[in-house]
Amino acid sequence: MIETVFVTGGSSTLGQRVLRRLTSHFHVLAVEHRHNVEIPDAEIELLRGGLEETVRNPQPLQRAQVVLHMAAVTHADDPAEYFHVNTDLTKQLMSACSASQHFIYVSTICAHPDGGAYGRSKWLAEEAIRGSRLDYTIIRPSEIYGSKDAEGIDALIAVARKVRILPDFRYGGSIKYAPISAQEAADFIAEAAIYRRETGQTYTLCADRLCTAPEMAQALRSSVRPLFVIPVPITMLRAAKALRLPMPFKRDQIDRLVLPKAYDSTLARRDYDFQAQSFIDYLTEIGKITARAGSGR
C-alpha cells in the first residue's frame, strides 16, 4: 500500500521541486498558500489554506504516514510574525501529529538563539521537535542558489551582473558562504522523506568548500568585466539600520549574516551520500557559458 505524505510549503519554488520527486513514491497531500502548485501531470491532492487552517482542521494531516513541514516566514518587518508562524504554529502542527508519523522539519543553518528573530524562531521550533514524542528529521540547508526567488546569494550575483559591483560583507574578515543549489536541497529533502534512514537526526546541507565575495568575483570575471569588489563593514549596516535608513535588508538579516555557522555535512553524506557542487565551480561554469554565448553573437 502506497504511503501518504502531507506537505506544507509545497507551493514555494523549493517546495515544488520537492513535490516532483515525491509524487512517484507517495500519495501527496500538499497545502497551497499564496501561490499555486503548478506541476503538470502530477497527481497531487491540493488543500487550500495556510498553517492556521491546517491546525484548525487536522483531519487531512492525520491521514499521512509522513509529515514534511517546509512552510515558514523568512522575511518579516515584525519579529512577532516569525515566532507566530515558525515557532507557535509549528508546535501546533506537531501537536496534531501522532506518534506513528514521521515529522520532517526543514529548518535553516541560521537556527540559533543568536540568529536574529528568524534564526531564533526556527531554533525554538527545533528544540520543541527534539523534545517531542515524534520520530523526526531536521534538515538545515545553507544558503540556497538557483531558486529563482532573486534573494540571498542569488541577489548578490544578480547585483554583480547588473551593476558590476559585488559587496564583500566584512565582519572580522570577509563573510564566508557554503551555498547549495535549490535542486540539491530538494533532492535531499525528498530522499529524507522517502527513505527515512535514521530518526532523531539533524542534517546540515552545505558545500564542502567555503567561499568569499572576492573568490566569487574571480569566478565571475570571465563573464562580468570589469567587476569591482566593494568592502561593506557590518558595523556600517548596523548603523544604517539604527538610523532607519532605507536598506535592501530586513533588520534580522544582519544577525543571520554574521552568525558563526557550523558548515559540516558529514551526517548528510553518511546517511544519504549528499555532496554539493562547489559554488565557485558553478560560477566558473556559468561564466564560461555566458562568455561563449557573448562571443558568438
Structure description:
By secondary structure, this protein is an alpha/beta fold. The chain starts with a strand and ends with a helix. It has helices at 13-22, 51-56, 79-95, 116-130, 153-163, 182-195, 213-220, 234-242, 253-258, 266-272, 279-295, and strands at residues 4-8, 27-32, 44-48, 66-69, 102-106, 135-141, 144-145, 165-170, 180-181, 201-205, 228-233. The protein has a domain at 4-144 and 180-208 and 262-277: NAD(P)-binding Rossmann-like Domain (Rossmann fold). The longest helix has 17 residues, at 79-95. The chain contains 11 helices and 11 strands. It is globular.
Note the topology.
Blueprint lengths: L3 E5 L4 H10 L4 E6 L11 E5 L2 H6 L9 E4 L9 H17 L6 E5 L9 H15 L4 E7 L2 E2 L7 H11 L1 E6 L9 E2 H14 L5 E5 L7 H8 L7 E6 H9 L10 H6 L7 H7 L6 H17 L2
Parallel strand pairs: 1-2, 1-4, 2-3, 4-5, 5-6, 6-10, 7-9, 8-11
Helix pairs in contact: 1-6, 3-4, 7-11
